[in-house]
Design a protein that fits this description.
This protein is an all-alpha fold. It contains 13 helices and 2 strands; from the N terminus they run αββαααααααααααα. Helix content is 61%, strand content 3%. Strands 1-2 form a two-stranded antiparallel ribbon. The relative contact order is 0.14.
Length: 227
Amino acid sequence: MGSSSTDEQKREDENDIIYDGNNSSMNGVALYLNSGYGSIRDSTNVEHDYDCLLKWMMSLQANVTHIELNELTSGRAFIDALRVIDSNYFNDAWMEVFKDANYEEREWRLRANVLRKILKSVLKYNEEICNNVISKNILPNVMVIARDGSKEEIIKFIRIVVAAAVNGPRRDGMIKNIFDLEKSVQHTLMLTIQGLEFEGDNSAECKSAVVGDRVVQPTSQWTVDFA
């Protein structure tokens, strides 16, 4: 019993460690990192969903034809995507936070620290700009992304970025861009959006805003196309 309790505490501690370059500190409340696949489809579809969501990310920038895994585990690909989604919010001042980031860094704790900052920013964006408070239950584990390159956790991270894209000031253009993608990518994005969970008394309204009012026509068409 003692060993089991120790193992459980070790897992909790690992999820809460944030590396600041010199030491580790606890910040479980701010991040509430969770492992697991959440409500994103069955794990047998991980590779398919991962590839489709990367195609969406690449479509945001005309000159991007490939995204390496290390661009995701370092946070660089997420930063580039957010800059396209809303350059007024994710502006040069915001970029100052990452001015000392080394995207080729092999120390996974440093990569996790960059991912933590990006995650905090995109969650704040979803709340302040999109009026959606993302549920703690579906947050990605940035430690596992940085250390292991977990595609399951990367998918969960991208899902929060998708929420920002389809609910931000450029949502009309973002939704139109989705329609220009191949059907399998559209379908995956639909399922990704439908897998979003929100907190608060207005959680039902938030859900409607994401998969209803603002993208009701796209999700309706996708459902018909892929029924």
